Amino acid sequence: MRAAILREHGGVPELDEFPDPSEGEAVDVVAAGLNPVDRRIATGTFANETHAPPYVAGKEGIGRRADGTLVYFEYSVEPYGAFAERTALEPGSGYPLPEGLDPGLAVCLGVSGLAAWLSLAWRGGLEAGETVLVLGASGVVGQIAVQAAKLLGAARVVAAARDAEALEHTRSLGADAIVQLRAADLTAALRDAAGGPGYDLVLDPLWGAPAAAAVEAMKPFGRLVTMGQSAGAEATFKSATVRGKPVSILGYTNYTAGEERKADAYAQLARHAAAGEIRVGLEHIGLGDVPGAWRREGSSHRKVIVDP
Predict the structure, then answer these.
(1) What is the pLDDT of residues 260-275, one digit of tens each?
(2) What is the model's pLDDT at position 244?
(3) How far apart are CA 257 and CA 93, in angstroms?
C-alpha cells in the first residue's frame, strides 16, 4: 500500500510502499489530519508520544471498517499511522461517526476539537451565561472553541487573533466581538471587548504576552486554561493581579483527559457538527502532497486533510 513513511527522527515523511497491516483491525483510511503535534512526535523528543522509525506518519484519521461503518481514530497499531491507504487499530478502539458527518470535518473534531471542547467544558468548567475570551481564535482550535463556547451556553464570546481577515471570519462562527492581538494596548482592547467587568473564562493556546494581557482583563475568580505556547514558552504575571482577584490558571492537554471523557466529548462534537453547528475551514491534499505540506509554514486557518 502507499504510505508517507518517516524513516528517521527529525526527518520528513516520504511517499513509498509499506506492508499492509497484518495485526490489529485493518481499516481503510478515508481521511487523515496533519497537525503540529505530528511534527513534534517526529522529533523523537516529545515526552507524551514517541514512535520508533521507520513508521507511517500521521496521528489521527477516519477509517472505514470491514462492515462499511466509519470511525475516528487517534492511535494506530505500531508501526502504522494515518497517512496511508490503510492502517491497523486496536480492536474495538475508535469513536463512531454519526450518519451524514463529512469525514474531513470529523477529523477536525479529534485532536483540535477535543482540545477546544474539553478546555472549555471540563478544565474551564464553562457555565451558561458566562463571558469567554478565545485567544488564537483564527486557528483551527480557536475556530472550534468560538463555536463550542456558544454551544456550551456562553452569553458572550470574544475572539482574539493577529490576522485581521481571519479574525473577521470568526464573527460568522458566533463571536460577539473581536480583538486584534497587535493592538497597542492589548489589555485595554480586551477589557473593552468584554462588554462588562471582564472574562469568566479564557481559552489560551498562545501563552506569552497575550496570556498576561488576558489575566489583567479577567473577572475576579476567572479561569484561564492554557493549552499551548504559540506566542512564547514563558509568560509574566503580576502577583497582585493573580492574588488580588484572584484568578485560576489551569493546564490542559488531550493526553491527560482520559479515554472515556474524550469519547463522550467527541460524540457531542460529532452530533453538533452533523447538525451543521460546527464549521471549520479545510485544505484537502493527497498522500503525495504530505512531504511538501509537512515542510511548509502554511496557514493555520484551515485544517490540512490528507485524502489517501
Answers:
(1) 999 999 999 999 999 9
(2) 87
(3) 16
Pair 153, 174: CB distance under 8 Å = no
| Buried-exposed string 45-71: b where 16+ CB fall within 10 A, e elsewhere | eeeeeebeebbbbbbbbbbeeeeeebb
Nearest CA-CA partner of 204 in 267, 154, 161 = 161
Equal CATH topology for 2-109+279-307 and 112-255: yes
Q: Does domain 2-109+279-307 have CATH number 3.20.20.30?
A: no
Q: Are 123 and 252 in contact (CB under 8 A)?
A: yes
Residues 38-61, mean pLDDT to the nearest whole number: 95
- Asked whether the predicted pLDDT for residue 185 surpasses 70, the reply is yes
Across the range 225-238, mean pLDDT stands at: 91
Model confidence, pTM: 0.95
Query: What cell was used for 142?
Result: 480557536
CA-to-CA distance for 98 and 71, rounded, in angstroms? 9
- Helical H runs in the chain? 36-42, 103-108, 111-118, 140-151, 164-169, 186-194, 208-216, 239-244, 259-274, 290-295
Strands 131-135 and 70-73, sheet pairing: unpaired
pLDDT of 299 reads: 57
Per-residue pLDDT, averaged over 86-101, amounts to: 96
DSSP 8-state symbol, 121:
I
Q: Could you tell me which CATH class the domain 112-255 is placed in?
A: alpha beta
The domain segmentation of the chain, as residue ranges, is 2-109+279-307, 112-255
